[in-house]
Amino acid sequence: MLEFLQRPVVVTADVNLSVVALTVVGLLSRLWRLTYPRAVVFDEVYYGQYISLYMKRVFFFDGSGPPLGHMLLALGGYLGGFDGNFVWNRIGAEYSSNVPVRSLRLLPALAGALSVPMAYQIVWELGFSHCAALGAALLMLIENALITQARLMLLESVLIFFNLLAVLSYLKFNSQKHRPFSPSWWLWLTLTGVACSCAVGIKYMGVFTYLLVLGVAAVHTWHLIGDRALSNVRVLCHVLARAVALLVLPVVTYVLFFYVHLTLLYRSGPHDQIMSSAFQASLEGGLARITQGQPLEVAYGSQVTLKSASGRPVPCWLHSHQSTYPIMYDNGRGSSHQQQVTCYPFKDVNNWWIVKDPGRHQLEVSNPPRPVRHRDVVQLVHGMTTRLLNTHDVAAPLSPHAQEVSCYVDYNISMPAQSLWRLDVVNRESDAETWKTILSEVRFVHVNTSAILKLSGAHLPDWGFRQLEVVGEKLSRGLHESTVWTVEEHRYGRSQEQKERELELHSPAQTDVSRNLSFLARFSELQWRMLTVRSDDSEHKYSSTPLDWVTLDTSIAYWLHPRTSAQIHLLGNVVIWASAGLATALYALLTCWYLLRRRRNIRDLPEDCWLRWVLAGALCAGGWAANYLPFFLMEKTLFLYHYLPALAFQILLLPVVVQQVGEHLCRSELQRSLFGALVVAWYSAACRVFAVLRPLTYGDTPLSPSELQALRWRDSWDILIRKH
Amino acid sequence: MPSAVGRGLAGFELRPRKGRCGPQAATAAGPEGVAEVAARSPKQPAGGSRCFEAACRWALLALVTLLSFATRFHRLDQPPHVCWDETHFGKMGSYYINRTFFFDVHPPLGKMLIGLAGYLSGYDGTFMFQKPGDKYEHHSYVGMRGFCAFLGSLLVPLAYLTVLELSRSLPAALLAAALLTFDTGCLTLSQYILLDPILMFFIMAAMLSMVKYNSCAARPFSAPWWFWLSLTGINLAGALGVKFVGLFIILQVGWNTVADLWHLLGDLSLSLVTVGKHLAARTLCLVVLPLALYTAVYAAHFLVLSKSGPGDGFFSSAFQARLSGNSLHNASIPEYLAYGSVITVKNLQMAIGYLHSHRHLYPEGIGARQQQVTTYLHKDYNNLWIVKKHNINSDHLDPSFPVEFVQHGDVIRLEHKETSRNLHSHYHEAPLTQKHYQVTGYGINGTGDSNDFWRIEVINRKHGNRVKVLRSRIRLIHVVTGCVLGSSGKVLPKWGWEQVEVTCNPYLKETLSSVWNVEDHINPRLPNISLDVLQPSFPEVLLESHMVMIRGNSGLKPKDNEFTSKPWHWPVNYQGLRFSGVNDTDFRVYLLGNPVVWWLNLASLALYLLSGSIVAVAVQRGARLPAEVEGLTQVLLRGGGQLLLGWVLHYFPFFLMGRVLYFHHYFPAMLFSSMLTAVLWDTLLRLCAWSLAPAPLAGSIHGLGVLSLLLGTAYSFYLFHPLAYGMVGPLAQDPRSPMAGLRWLESWDF
């Protein structure tokens, strides 16, 4: 323990100058004129608004991905002193002077720059030559698409950084296997887990890399279990350590991101309505302001607004108004001609309903208030028209299989009021549960017909003011959230003489609902909504299909200078894309060949060489496949930049295949030198393409129309040419 | 590997199969073999008991088959009205009997067999099958139901034989048979005119033949080997010919075959030529044979359906000419397109349809608010367009003018006949494909603007510059913007009546979706000429019908706000399907799995994963297992593994499907899951008995366990049988109902 007393403390450092050099050129390529263009470029318009909301601490809802990415961008804004005051509404809008463009763009650019030395490290750790490693880094350096994406406020470069970090740290961890449980072993293991969860935290697609790393780790662990030289306890320790670092730690970290996110965003904002009333009540200034001091338990005589628990198509409140259903619909069916009941997405005085005891006539709360309990029968009186909520055996206007819901008007025809509803508290803990504001989720079951009050989600035509249809559902198919309602606003009946007593009565029942919602409840609600919210899958002008990506059959115009023809495009280095595709195919072919021959006991490669080849393929080709193939199953709108993480892995595979071909397929010296020359020529071609496409990558040089026309190598590239 | 199985089995009442292709005893050679035989000898069953065993096997097989037939055929004619999807498949059976052409998203074999069964049992194809609940009255329907019930009954013996082959344990086989016999879901699904019993029959038969030929591995190229191998191929073709779900069993057989070949390749005692022979035999029996049969099914399908019917419009003009009764059959229409002709324009891309417009506008916010133009697969008056000159709005049918033919390169106007609006395009984004321009109907009574002008180009100009009906492939180029009229193939949302989007594509790519032909052509001033329409070849027809089916399948999207069944509902038996009846006075049949069976299956899956991983880890750690346990673990890992793979392959792909899903899609997976349950419990109980061996009664644990499982499922079937055989009376919510206590989940609505 006291070794340092006997020996001097010595720090030795190995500095790999090529890594340093690569870092420097990487930084140069990504950071050069970072503030140009000083205007909103493409998806910055989208991320920017969230950065502003972070600066203002306003809650927002974005279904596209977890919050870490947005938070990292916002960190840049925080460090740059951004106050959040900028209207992100148009691509190409000039930034005002309060927007710290450099610090906002710095983080993605740094991540992009560091990917270059990391590519070197990964190929080196995989056991390939210095030359191959250098090749991978240099290819990463001159890939136009990666440069474009890294120089803007976008998340792909950060995602690629964490993907590569996860792979690199796993490789480092794996190379420590002869010194298990040493500090560096632990360091790399935990770093793997953290990097994985960061990747997932930035975009959901990070999960593909996470699963890949998990898969490789599982195979390695399986071999470890088969190692009979290890004792059972030892094996158990190994398995547990990996489980904690690669399963538990990422989950905890991921939840932590949400914790920070929800802690930062405590003010109510534009997207509140997507969330449940209880969630909204936990935000400062939103629903909380209205609901503060509300009585908790709904009693007979309470005045309430009822919000549908289903957010589809929009959050809305149970509503009625003077207008009646038309006697005859367009398709010839008849209606009851009674007062319409709808669901209305805006706050309105017509959203108020009074809970009435069917046995009494009073519409105010008695003293003491008699709380309504689960399975009680109630009537709902519309506040403004004092008509009773009613349903009967008449087909609903748009959902003919269900019953019409109306507010009862007595036309003195043989159609009696059927206005009794049994209250069904869905999330009850006991059968004597009372009906609580915000917290209780209730269903209304019609006593006569056992239909259930339901939001059908269809928009009524003009006679219903395009509000949403509410029906009585007879065929109750399990519990669906469109049949569930919650009380949002609530006050006790305000008869004049009761008013003063009410004030006293309120105070004991009053609760601060925000304290009732734990972080985990908020997290799970937010996460669930994010995963289930339906994004519109309409096609975008620049959207593309996965098949277009491999062949680079598409481009995205990011930005056009307002006066000159300088422009930024997301365009890949054609030589790199083509050769990377070729290398992947070659890898697959060679592996099949080797596998078949090994099966017949013909060993073309020495064992360590073979293992190296397999591991490189599992991580690089596997990384490409895992980050690319799932897109074929996705139904959302896809863009070329979704391919970049897969491309990064493919670039790593390229030098691996090149070295393999050079070492094992070229038999004679002559072949090898020829091959070497070929590789040099190929790399110069890639550099040449980089230089030619550079104006579209950095967008700093205005080009003449003929030059632009000459750059349009494919018809499908949308290069913008000014007509005058 | 096979020796291990043989070794493990020695301890149980099982025969070392002396049969035609039993690998066990034969391959148990090698150093271990001798010791093994010695160890086994005390328990070796004598010749007499072996005979008894075989007799026992056959007797049990007969028993389970009998029981299965009895349950499936009991009250088969009830209810005497159309239930659920009988309305589709019965109708399609009738189409075969009437030989009218129709279109369906499933391949034809299942419906052909239904039609055949109906034909043989005296059904004349006159019943309409209009909607569920229609009474059959005097029509003979029991033959078709009986055929489905026959195949459905065979599932039980097939499962029995498969499990017997995999586990070599009679109790396990019996348990599997009981689980399926007593499952109300399988029973209900087998009793009606549906594709599912046919599909499940082929799946199970393929599985059994695959397992059988695996057991013949020791004697390759022998007669039984060939028999089972080709039978596998035949059943695969059958499964795929009924529904595309058959693809999953093909995957399973494919995986098994690849693993098998890989194993053979690694066997260095076999020459490469032998391996090549193996490969060739499998290619022949598992690829060539099924493909040939599958194609033959289609050939028969097209041969039988020779009359025009409701499915015509889904297919190309050339295809329709094959169907007698279609307007294109022996067509007699004016040959060359002239001004004033009334025409329909069909897209050359398969399954896009006719250029169509109707009296509805694009909704607000989607391009200009003008009349919609779509493509539509059905024949309809709204598909008719009039060809006019771009600058003259005269009536070309006036006999005082000479007839003028449309030439390649002419600028024309297409007026929609019903609404008198012109085909129009402009610089607005198309509704779905935003890279393209919107196409609308514009103008009043044929008077519009210059955006209505289209240049007509004939691509195959071997007939001169005129436009020949059906033969000429034409493109319509918008004069002002230079874009080409095409269809994106995307289905418009509700406002567009779920028809297909039409766009004007500014990128002049040569694709079929922007090429059209003229199909119907009416011009009273021109002589009608009989056209020998180019008959499509059989491969073209085959390809086309598959394209149409795939489009049809992906078009079955769940509607907004519709309550749909989710794949996770299925294994928990969360919700059933109403086959017949809603109210308490109706005769109600409710498709729901026997909850005891299904929940046992669910628990067994978890238990299997647990015990399987424990065993796998133990083996990987090199634990020395006694011979008996070794054999049991092999059954668990290999036999159980096959079944688990079957379950996974028939279940998880549904999570990826975008189309609308129903509860009955789970039943093929449920068959595998039930067999797995049987294998698992039998093995676990044996292990239990073995580990408690010295204790008294340990030997009977296995027997008692299996017996109680058998009795338990039988009793639960007794409880739930009204679901399948039908019930009348109050709903289960009502305490007076006999089913009152059985509504264990609130989501069951029977």
From TrEMBL, chain A:
<dbReference type="InterPro" id="IPR032421">
    <property type="entry name" value="PMT_4TMC"/>
</dbReference>
<feature type="transmembrane region" description="Helical">
    <location>
        <begin position="674"/>
        <end position="693"/>
    </location>
</feature>
<feature type="transmembrane region" description="Helical">
    <location>
        <begin position="185"/>
        <end position="202"/>
    </location>
</feature>
<feature type="transmembrane region" description="Helical">
    <location>
        <begin position="574"/>
        <end position="597"/>
    </location>
</feature>
<comment type="function">
    <text>Transfers mannosyl residues to the hydroxyl group of serine or threonine residues. Coexpression of both POMT1 and POMT2 is necessary for enzyme activity, expression of either POMT1 or POMT2 alone is insufficient. Essentially dedicated to O-mannosylation of alpha-DAG1 and few other proteins but not of cadherins and protocaherins.</text>
</comment>
<feature type="transmembrane region" description="Helical">
    <location>
        <begin position="154"/>
        <end position="173"/>
    </location>
</feature>
<dbReference type="Pfam" id="PF02815">
    <property type="entry name" value="MIR"/>
</dbReference>
<keyword id="KW-1133">Transmembrane helix</keyword>
<dbReference type="Pfam" id="PF16192">
    <property type="entry name" value="PMT_4TMC"/>
</dbReference>
<feature type="transmembrane region" description="Helical">
    <location>
        <begin position="609"/>
        <end position="629"/>
    </location>
</feature>
<feature type="transmembrane region" description="Helical">
    <location>
        <begin position="239"/>
        <end position="260"/>
    </location>
</feature>
<feature type="domain" description="MIR">
    <location>
        <begin position="369"/>
        <end position="426"/>
    </location>
</feature>
<dbReference type="GO" id="GO:0005789">
    <property type="term" value="C:endoplasmic reticulum membrane"/>
</dbReference>
<feature type="transmembrane region" description="Helical">
    <location>
        <begin position="15"/>
        <end position="32"/>
    </location>
</feature>
<protein>
    <recommendedName>
        <fullName>Dolichyl-phosphate-mannose--protein mannosyltransferase</fullName>
        <ecNumber>2.4.1.109</ecNumber>
    </recommendedName>
</protein>
<comment type="function">
    <text>Transfers mannose from Dol-P-mannose to Ser or Thr residues on proteins.</text>
</comment>
<keyword id="KW-0677">Repeat</keyword>
<comment type="pathway">
    <text>Protein modification; protein glycosylation.</text>
</comment>
<dbReference type="Pfam" id="PF02366">
    <property type="entry name" value="PMT"/>
</dbReference>
<comment type="similarity">
    <text>Belongs to the glycosyltransferase 39 family.</text>
</comment>
<keyword id="KW-0256">Endoplasmic reticulum</keyword>
<dbReference type="InterPro" id="IPR027005">
    <property type="entry name" value="PMT-like"/>
</dbReference>
From TrEMBL, chain B:
<comment type="function">
    <text>Transfers mannosyl residues to the hydroxyl group of serine or threonine residues. Coexpression of both POMT1 and POMT2 is necessary for enzyme activity, expression of either POMT1 or POMT2 alone is insufficient. Essentially dedicated to O-mannosylation of alpha-DAG1 and few other proteins but not of cadherins and protocaherins.</text>
</comment>
<keyword id="KW-0677">Repeat</keyword>
<feature type="transmembrane region" description="Helical">
    <location>
        <begin position="226"/>
        <end position="255"/>
    </location>
</feature>
<dbReference type="InterPro" id="IPR027005">
    <property type="entry name" value="PMT-like"/>
</dbReference>
<feature type="transmembrane region" description="Helical">
    <location>
        <begin position="596"/>
        <end position="619"/>
    </location>
</feature>
<keyword id="KW-0808">Transferase</keyword>
<feature type="transmembrane region" description="Helical">
    <location>
        <begin position="639"/>
        <end position="662"/>
    </location>
</feature>
<dbReference type="GO" id="GO:0005789">
    <property type="term" value="C:endoplasmic reticulum membrane"/>
</dbReference>
<keyword id="KW-0256">Endoplasmic reticulum</keyword>
<dbReference type="InterPro" id="IPR036300">
    <property type="entry name" value="MIR_dom_sf"/>
</dbReference>
<dbReference type="Pfam" id="PF02366">
    <property type="entry name" value="PMT"/>
</dbReference>
<comment type="pathway">
    <text>Protein modification; protein glycosylation.</text>
</comment>
<feature type="domain" description="MIR">
    <location>
        <begin position="464"/>
        <end position="521"/>
    </location>
</feature>
<dbReference type="InterPro" id="IPR032421">
    <property type="entry name" value="PMT_4TMC"/>
</dbReference>
<dbReference type="Pfam" id="PF16192">
    <property type="entry name" value="PMT_4TMC"/>
</dbReference>
<dbReference type="Pfam" id="PF02815">
    <property type="entry name" value="MIR"/>
</dbReference>
<dbReference type="GO" id="GO:0004169">
    <property type="term" value="F:dolichyl-phosphate-mannose-protein mannosyltransferase activity"/>
</dbReference>
<dbReference type="InterPro" id="IPR016093">
    <property type="entry name" value="MIR_motif"/>
</dbReference>
<feature type="transmembrane region" description="Helical">
    <location>
        <begin position="669"/>
        <end position="693"/>
    </location>
</feature>
<comment type="similarity">
    <text>Belongs to the glycosyltransferase 39 family.</text>
</comment>
<comment type="function">
    <text>Transfers mannose from Dol-P-mannose to Ser or Thr residues on proteins.</text>
</comment>
<feature type="transmembrane region" description="Helical">
    <location>
        <begin position="699"/>
        <end position="720"/>
    </location>
</feature>
